[in-house]
């Protein structure tokens, strides 16, 4: 009851002195708004980055055959050791790559940890022409693991059937952009049609079995016109290998089962394949996962957010000092009121509570205004950065409300205590 | 005398700046009894110690030496925290400068002592309305002090002093800031409260005419009571 009366009192005090109340709150408003805005932007970017990483297969393990760095590759140039490009570098041949048997053994060994192997073979880029019509494509041979990992779905037709995959049939799944360019956007008409593809001086024919929806990657700015965009054209990986005359894999991704320790499994995978490369002088296998990059990135984002929040926190501190200042002024102005209240029987504690509540009310109102402003600023920031995710962090709201109340109590306590300890006789005599 | 003694003072001494070269004895042994239902005036020139005596009577301050019992409570030995409760329930202050709380309407001002006494909202507003009617301010209940004249403010202040039905009304120059006709109006309210409700009233003033209206006049000079006599009643001009 007393608390309610105090809040009412504080509000009517603020209402009667609007300009002063606003100026006092300004520090808190700016402080809270910047904390919320920064946390909102940071939070949104983190969510967006994580999504992006997820779509890139953050929990996948990339396995790639790379050049071994041998001691002979270093030359002593008098200044110290330096890495030089040695002309005797061997280009990897098919036999240096990972073969099917190694993968099969690997799958048997880590049966419980591997969900699928995702492999993609880049065949090359070209332009498919049909009279005056054309479409730019990048031809990629893919397997089922890749389809799963990249969540490839067709809007029309079907994905490669078992037989097509196994036999390396000359079939393809093309983008809706290609359909727009070559078939006037009619996906139904495109299905079953043959595409004549010229690649490295040779000509190949692929039958269209499916159409997928092309999604523009938000991180790359497309400088080419809609018509010139190069989209992926997918073919079964065996078809790709037969075109390239290879049977082994230079790289692939391992999709781990959920719940496994990815970082540990990266090491295990790398060690496992390198068994086969002990005697290979020039090449070895490297395994890595986006997961660790993602962790680093998140770590960096949160540190950055924290650092800027500390600066915003200083603004909040200055705001708090402003509140304390105005409370001291207000108490001096209201010395007679305090004296009167005491003469009429107000105990010190209720005078103290009255002024602390007043300080909290100022800070809370400031905090709420700041919060709304901060969310707005965060939203504007997100729009400016052209990020898609807008995630207001709930914790930032709780923190800011808690923080503004805390400032109210902390910076209100000293003035309130001063008021509570006033001598009523002196206070009543105050002019 | 069979009437109850509301204020009982024995050998009240008040010193300031104790232990310093400026030590000052303002009250030099005051013996004073005020009985229930009395209307007493304490008169003295400025510097006579009457303000200090009022502060002690009003429990805003404690005597350096001596005994003071207010409505059977030993004030000299009460703790600070107890004094605020005593002021709240036993004493009704009326100040020369009214001291109403700004930006708070008459009703809320009258309710304030009851708020500190922990009375319910319902009881507060019922009693406040009753008291405002008693002082003839019922029509101004929702006016703020800045919208009231001096006399009206003082009437609200008297209503506020009556809020917790105190043992004594302690009025310090209540008409000091008012012209004679509004001052008359305020004094009439005190007489009404005295006659109709049997309130014990202690009036502190430097005006001999006002003092004459009271039943008993106590004169204080240089920190000592120098005279005590009956009042002559209202002086009409």
What does this structure look like?
The complex is a heterodimer of chains A (431) and B (237). Chain A is of the alpha+beta class and 431 residues long. Chain A folds into two domains: 2-53 and 295-429, no CATH class; 60-290, no CATH class. Helices cover 53% and strands 20% of the residues of chain A. Chain A contains 14 helices and 13 strands. In chain A, the strands form four sheets. Chain A has a four-stranded antiparallel beta sheet. In chain A, strands 7, 8, 9 and 10 form a four-stranded mixed beta sheet that branches. In chain A, strands 5-6-11 form a three-stranded mixed beta sheet. In chain A, a hairpin with a 4-residue loop joins strand 2 (74-76) and strand 3 (81-83). In chain A, helix 2 (18-55) runs antiparallel to helix 13. The mean pLDDT of chain A is 85. Chain B is α/β, with parallel strands linked by helices and 237 residues long. Chain B has one domain: Rossmann fold. Chain B contains seven helices and ten strands. Chain B has helices at residues 50-57, 80-90, 106-116, 121-134, 150-161, 180-197, 208-212; strands spanning 5-16, 24-35, 39-43, 65-70, 73-74, 91-94, 168-172, 200-205, 216-221, 224-230. Chain B has a six-stranded mixed beta sheet with strand order 6-7-8-3-9-10, with helices on both faces. A four-stranded antiparallel beta sheet of chain B has the order 2-1-4-5, covered by helices on one side. In chain B, strand 1 and strand 2 form a beta hairpin. The radius of gyration of chain B is 18 Å and the shape is globular. The relative contact order of chain B is 0.18. The model of chain B has no long low-confidence stretch (mean pLDDT 92). At the A-B interface, helix 1, helix 11 and helix 14 of A face helix 2 and helix 3 of B.
């Amino acid at each position: 009851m007393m608390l309610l009366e105090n809040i009412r009192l504080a509000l009517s005090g603020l209402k009667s002195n609007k300009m002063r109340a606003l100026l006092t709150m300004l520090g808190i408003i700016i402080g809270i708004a910047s904390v919320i805005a920064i946390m909102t932007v940071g939070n949104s970017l983190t969510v967006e980055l994580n999504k992006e990483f997820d779509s890139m297969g953050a929990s996948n393990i990339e396995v790639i055959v790379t050049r071994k760095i041998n001691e002979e590759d270093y030359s002593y140039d008098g200044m110290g050791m330096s890495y030089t490009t040695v002309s005797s570098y061997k280009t990897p041949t098919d036999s240096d790559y990972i073969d099917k048997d190694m993968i099969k053994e690997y799958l048997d060994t880590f049966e419980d940890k591997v969900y699928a192997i995702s492999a993609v073979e880049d065949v090359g880029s070209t332009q498919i022409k049909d009279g005056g019509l054309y479409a730019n494509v990048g031809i990629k041979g893919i397997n089922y693991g890749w389809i799963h990992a990249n969540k490839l779905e067709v809007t029309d037709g079907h994905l490669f059937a078992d037989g097509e995959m196994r036999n390396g049939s000359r079939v393809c799944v093309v983008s809706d952009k290609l359909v727009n360019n070559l078939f006037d956007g009619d996906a139904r008409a495109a299905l079953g049609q043959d595409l004549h593809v010229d690649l490295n001086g040779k000509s190949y024919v692929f039958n269209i079995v499916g159409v997928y929806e092309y999604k523009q990657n938000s991180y790359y700015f497309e400088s080419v016109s809609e018509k010139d965009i190069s989209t992926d054209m997918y073919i079964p990986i065996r078809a790709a290998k037969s075109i390239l005359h290879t049977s082994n894999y230079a790289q692939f991704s391992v999709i781990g089962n959920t719940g496994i320790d990815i970082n540990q499994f990266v090491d295990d995978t790398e060690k496992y394949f390198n068994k086969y490369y002990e005697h290979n002088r020039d090449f070895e296998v490297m395994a890595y996962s986006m997961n660790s990059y993602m962790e680093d990135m998140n770590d960096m984002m949160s540190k950055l957010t924290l650092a800027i929040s500390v600066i915003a926190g200083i603004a909040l501190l200055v705001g708090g000092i402003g509140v304390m200042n105005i409370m001291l002024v207000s108490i001096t102005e209201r010395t007679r009121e305090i004296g009167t209240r005491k003469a009429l029987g107000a105990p010190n504690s209720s005078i103290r509570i009255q002024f602390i509540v007043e300080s909290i009310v100022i800070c809370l109102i400031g905090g709420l205004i700041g919060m709304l402003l901060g969310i707005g600023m965060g939203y504007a920031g997100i729009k400016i950065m052209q990020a898609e995710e807008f995630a207001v962090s709930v914790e930032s709201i709780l923190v800011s409300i808690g923080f503004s109340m805390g400032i109210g109590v902390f910076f209100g306590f000293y003035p309130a205590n001063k008021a509570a300890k006033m001598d009523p006789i002196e206070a009543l005599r105050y002019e | 005398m069979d009437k109850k003694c509301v204020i009982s003072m024995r050998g009240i001494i008040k010193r300031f700046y104790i232990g310093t070269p400026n030590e000052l004895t303002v009250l030099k042994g005051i013996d004073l009894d005020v009985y229930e239902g009395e209307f007493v005036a304490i008169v003295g020139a400025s510097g006579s110690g009457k303000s200090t005596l009022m502060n002690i009577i009003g429990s805003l301050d404690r005597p350096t030496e001596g005994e003071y019992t207010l409505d059977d409570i030993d004030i000299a030995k009460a703790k600070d925290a107890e004094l605020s409760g005593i002021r709240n329930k036993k004493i009704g202050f009326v100040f020369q400068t009214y001291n109403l709380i700004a930006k708070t309407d008459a009703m809320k001002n009258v309710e304030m002592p009851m708020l500190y006494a922990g009375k319910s909202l319902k009881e507060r507003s019922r009693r406040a309305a009753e008291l405002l009617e008693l002082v003839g301010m019922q029509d101004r209940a929702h006016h703020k002090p800045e919208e009231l004249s001096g006399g009206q403010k003082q009437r609200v202040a008297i209503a506020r002093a009556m809020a917790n039905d105190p043992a004594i009304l302690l009025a310090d120059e209540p008409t000091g800031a008012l012209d004679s006709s509004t001052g008359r109006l305020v004094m009439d309210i005190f007489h009404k409260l005295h006659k109709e409700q049997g309130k014990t009233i202690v009036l502190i003033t430097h005006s001999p005419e006002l003092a004459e209206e009271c039943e008993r006049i106590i004169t204080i000079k240089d920190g000592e009571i120098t005279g005590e006599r009956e009042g002559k009643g209202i002086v009409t001009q």
